Amino acid sequence: MSVSYDSNKNKRNIEQRGLNFDQVADLDWDNAWIYQDERDEYNEIRFIAYSMLDKRLHFVCFTETKDGIRVISFRKANNREVKRYEHEILNR
Length: 92
What we know:
The chain is α+β, with helices and mostly antiparallel strands. It has helices at about 5-15, 80-90; strands spanning about 1-5, 35, 45-55, 55-65, 70-75. Strands 1-5-4-3-2 form a 5-stranded mixed β-sheet. The longest helix has 12 residues, at about 80-90.
């Protein structure tokens, strides 16, 4: 999968969160919980995914591209999101 992103946004993410957008390619996509982001009206279709990376749950917001995805946001999931993920995965 091809992962693209805004390089300035990636630089800020590395500085603030210690996470490089390139790491999104290493997420466990086969077991990810993915759904459409309908929190706001965007000028594109966005998705939210929760997936494991290095034994830790992560959150990524992205949009699909012709060759893969474009990362909008990437961070460690918070405790509330971990509980929701566990509930969703167990009830699949």
